[in-house]
Amino acid sequence: MIKGILYFLLSFLCLNSLAFTIQSKVEDESFLENPHYDTNNELADHLLKLQKNYSNLIDVRSIGSSLDGNDLIVARIYKDVKRPRSILVPMFKYIANMHGDETIGRQLLIYLAEYLVKNYGVVQEVTKLVDTTDIYLMPSMNPDGFAKSREGSCESMQNYYGRYNAEGIDLNRDFPDRFDRQLIQKLYHTKRQPETLAVMDWVKSNPFVLSANLHGGAVVASYPYDNTINHHDCCEDSPTPDDSVFRYLARTYARNHPVMKDGNDCNETFPNGITNGAYWYDLSGGMQDFNYVFTNCFEITLELSCCKYPSRNELPIEWHKNKKSLLEYMKLVHMGMKGLVKDVDGYPIREAEIFVQGMEEKPVRTTERGEYWRMLTPGTYYVRAVAFGFVPSRYMEVVINESEPVIVNFTLTPSDDVEGKSRAKRKTVKVGADEFGFIFKTDFKYHNYVDLEKFLKEIHETYPKLTRLYSIGKSVENRDLWVLEISTQPGIHRAMIPEFKYIANMHGNEAVGRELLILLIKYLCENYGPNKRITDLIDNTRIHIMPSMNPDGYEKSSVGDEGGVIGRNNAHNVDLNRNFPDQYGSNIYNKIQEPEVLAVMNWSIANQFVLSANLHGGALVANFPFDDSAKDFRPFSDPKTEFNPTEENDIFKYLASTYATAHRTMYQGKPCPSFIQETFENGITNGAEWYPVTGGMQDWSYVHGGTLELTLEVGCYKFPKPEELSKYWMDNREALIKFIEQIHIGVKGFVKSSIGTPIKHAAISVNNIQHVSYTGIDGDYYRLLLPGKYNLTCSAKGYEPQTIEIIVPETGNHSVIYNFHMMRNDPQHWSSAYDFRILENILHTKYHTNREIEVIFRELENKHPLIAQFEDDGNEEFYNSLKVTDSIGETEETKVHIMILSSVFESSPLGREIMVNLARHIITSYTTKEPLMIELLKNIVIHFVVVNTNFNRVYEQFNANESICDPHLSEELSDKLLNAESDVTKNKFIKLFEKDEISLALTFTAGDDSNVQILKDREPVYAQFAKDTQSSHLGAQNQLCPSNSMRLNENESFRKVTNLLYRMFSLPLYSINLSCCKMPPENEIADVWRENIERILKFVNLGRKGVRGFVKDEQGSPIRNARVKVVGSEREYKVSKNLGFFHVLVPKGTCQLQFFSDNFTTKMININYEDGILDLKNITLQMDSVNNKNKKYNVSGYVVDENGTPIKKAEIGIKGNWRKQVFTNDVGQFEMENINDENPILTVNAQGFKKSEKLVKMNLVGTTKNIIFKLSQSDEDMGFKNLLFIFFICTLILLTVVCITCCAINGCNMPCNCCNEENSRHLTENYKFSLLTRKTKKDVLFPDEIYGDDSEEEEELFNPVSLKEPIKRYKDNFSEDDLSEEDDLVVLPSRSQ
């Protein structure tokens, strides 16, 4: 009984569990809720959301773009979509909406994608289909037309608006047709629409087996052919050799469709719901015929609804009508037979043809993996395989059933009857190589230009499928600069196949390298196939070899030249290895590029070279960059060589060591006979450390060309006898091959958008190294790296940057592959994330006039008066200036003053706009209470200075031609600064730096990608800060900007301006290169801002870095002329003028600070700095008692009367020293120098005034200022002069009375000469007086003493006063803190206007 009850309960639970399981696995069609048509943007978002949620099942890519720039999106659905397709898994595709207004298919494919991924693992039918089929869904081939179509339009609009693409072309009439004349030429050369070309490339590059093209406007399944040779309008069948297969395919779809199977919808009749395309109506250039004729793919056309663009409410109904048909049709991809075709060694044979007896007109071809699929209806067939170079297989009987595809593999035997190169190649394998590695006899000899040209042409003719011969330009004497490419697909850049180049003979008399490359070409071509190592190398590398860069020089040189110079230079007598643009400057050797150099530069930039070497002669060493340093461009610089490595010195040393160790003797580092003192450790050297080469090719290739390049000195003799060439070849052969193989170390991959569109010119940076790599046209990138862990950053215009960590393993000779999938960076989203949603910075950007910038700055001041102040000093004609800091108006002495200058080149107004954006950004950051910005502005003052001069002239050029890129001015601001003549613009500029104590300065450049490393040779500390500032994750760095003479000259001018400011103000001027164009189109300003904001803010944030504190004496008083210096740097920081405050930038790590001042001992302090602000509080200096014994002192001040009027020509002397005397000037000022006494008594004598004396305690540092004497009138009786004065005054009063009386009597009608005298004429100047109160309170040691303030900021200020005003005397308003007990005055003269 109990057992029965337990059995019943167990059964009940099992049934409930089963019911729950069944209930929980109901198919998901939730996508039918709220039906609507996805717009183009929604389509991408919809599929990407699926990809995010079902990343293992669906992958969204773009195969190209429409005419209007919309992505042609394809969704791939497969069981493990991240992995490549498994062998023999067939590929299926649906394409819809090629007519933009036929929309049912478009939305059904979106539904189908969602149905397949959501029901995988739930619906068995779906699971099996996705597991066994590589499915591709393309919802819209014509997104442009769809965007123009209108919902509810059952017929095409007038002029087929919406049906056609943006060019007005019917895409289903745009494909190559089987009846086209000269078909092959037309296929590749006819101008076709971008949508058509994208689909053609996609279909031809993938082995699709089955396909359908979804349309609207009828309900029928149509199959090829679509036209006849006679092109009758209708009613003429045009069957393919596979007509039975196509009828079977079409009937399968139709019979599973509840309406189509009847064949009588839309007022048309189609038996069984199918039709031959040509029988319905004749159509040329259709897509289904293209698939069948030109590829292995079988395709039909499905017309799904009578109404082309029905209401959205119809979508669920249409889904249910077509759902079963869509699934059943996809299953047919497994119909027929499939298999592999291999040779007797088991290697796949590509392009083998599978023939079916009776249907020989339509063979199918094998893939690169030897796969094939042949669609066949159930039945018995006879099939064979045929491949060039192999014996055709015999016909095999194959029985096809409906359940599963039949697998038939073929093994083919090589044929001995094959003639031509294929036969020769097989025979070559049996011959073997000689002692030098060559298959055929080789003559070791020199080749002059004619011989070289003949050799290269013969090689190309012998190996036409392996080589390409091309010229990159002409020499001075019109000789071709030949390059031979060696590649399995010559002339084509293949994605993920890196490109390599060798160049030799750039010095014409260095001939060994020229012959080595000729021999290398022969060796590579002959050994492709027989030698697995060489075969693998060529299969995976595109190799370019230029045997002679200087053919003119070679023709002048001669055999036996050991170390001469005849033929070294080109026909213009220019050394080509001194003629390239140099990162450090220009000189007479590289100001103008030679034709050979220009050709190599253009060739290098046009190709995506990854690794390179330049072969020379006369030494035996592998030389790596850099070849020079900044000092090599300074006149009278130290000739001593110095080590100057790149940031990637480790990889360069590795590459150089690889060549040296593979060479038979180079690694020994032994000297050449001509230079017995010259040895190289391990056979390698840094170029600059060996001897400086300015304008060298290897540095240019790295800095500008983006290529890692070495200079290989391959032998001690430049032009040895030909008998020695075989030895040179054997010495270098292995090294030449091994060096090429190094191109495969590191990392490579693709950079694509989230939907698969390749992104070209994306920047790939490693660990913030300034040198970046760029993607090619296919979005592929390559970066050579040694084993280790790296942060790899990808940034591209319009995309969010990505940083990932990669590991390059210790073992293996293949690159790590990592692909970036970049997300679009919406400008407004970016603005919200990085720029506080300041839309003015990214929307409707423009070049603002001077007045508009002034208005912007004044508005910022009005809205934010506590932190922003427009600096209105009357210079608006020259500069607009805005000051930004926390608490405007309060003391700024303990803040760091930073100047941001728009540009020193007026022809580059881009910096003005970036400056305005930066001002908005910083102010908004502060007002939104960003903690870091609040902290920053409490410690710094930013002066935004916009150069206004010549903007109108530049903008006129831009208006005339918006693509001008680089406007031109005959004279720039930089030219004026460097000109010795006085100029008002120059003077105003200099005063900008004199007005405030500027600690840091930044300016913007454009048009040249040469990053100016500030005074690298003199100030490595500041050069490092500049370098750190350049790195950015928000934008592309180191843009590959083309160079020209104007840009090189501007770069040189900028260097000189930098040095000028450093000499004048001890101020390093930093720069950020914003763009390749000095004036890009206005709509690109936002992109420039987005790309550079991070680097700019990095510079501004230097204000919150460094060491700060106060320098004081032992009594705690500020030492106001103290200076601070970082040991190892030339720059001396002055302390502030009142408090002795200092702020010094220091490098990370341990360093030493030096504090010094006149009359004080020097103090050294060791610090360990990490980041942020390191506050040293008070630094106390002790008096230097030894040096103070012979100290000389200076003093200055004023002499005034009791009313504050200056007394001129007063005599100032020193009591007890009658020889020392000076006199006051017209404003009562005096200066006395070289006083021996530390506490002198100054005496003053002035006529009519009492004599005065004052004991002055001299400042130990600097000049004792503002010693003021106030003299009283003398008590003597009036003298003769006083009587004359009284008489003059009385006479003047009498004349005034007479004049007034005369005017009254005559009714003021008569002129009164005495009243018309110009009473504004004065024989002497008039003055106003004001007081300076910015002094710190001091203890007074003597009651009649005032300490002078040595602050340079407390200058005598002259306030102009009009002569129409009466001259006023100012009352004493000094406090005790400012004056001694005698209430002395500071006199400030005011000159009449």
Describe it for me?
Its cofactor is Zn(2+). Belongs to the peptidase M14 family. This is Peptidase M14 domain-containing protein. It comes from Polypedilum vanderplanki. The longest helix is centred in the C-terminal third of the chain and has 26 residues, at 1280-1305. By secondary structure, the chain is an alpha/beta fold. The chain is 28% helix and 22% strand. The chain contains 32 helices and 53 strands. The protein is globular, with a radius of gyration of 43 Å. 43% of the residues are buried. The strands form eleven sheets. It has an eight-stranded mixed β-sheet with strand order 1-2-4-3-5-8-6-7, with helices on both faces. Strands 18-19-21-20-22-25-23-24 form an eight-stranded mixed β-sheet, sandwiched between helices.
Query: What Rg is obtained from the alpha carbons, in whole angstroms?
Result: 43 Å
Total strands: the figure is 53
Task: Note the main sheet.
Answer: 8 strands, mixed
Can you tell me the overall shape? Answer: globular
The level of helicity is 25-40%
β-strand amount: 15-25%
Q: Tell me, rounded to a whole number, the average pLDDT.
A: 83
Distance between the terminal alpha carbons, to the nearest Å?
126 Å
Strand order of the largest sheet: 1-2-4-3-5-8-6-7
Q: What's the multimeric state?
A: single chain
Structural class: alpha/beta
Count of helices?
A: 32
Q: Spans of 5+ residues with little confidence (pLDDT < 50)?
A: 17-24, 182-189, 418-431, 1010-1018, 1032-1039, 1308-1393
InterPro entries: CarboxyPept-like_regulatory, CARBOXYPEPT_ZN_1, CARBOXYPEPT_ZN_2, Peptidase_M14, Peptidase_M14_domain
Protein name: Peptidase M14 domain-containing protein
GO molecular function: metallocarboxypeptidase activity; zinc ion binding
Organism: Polypedilum vanderplanki
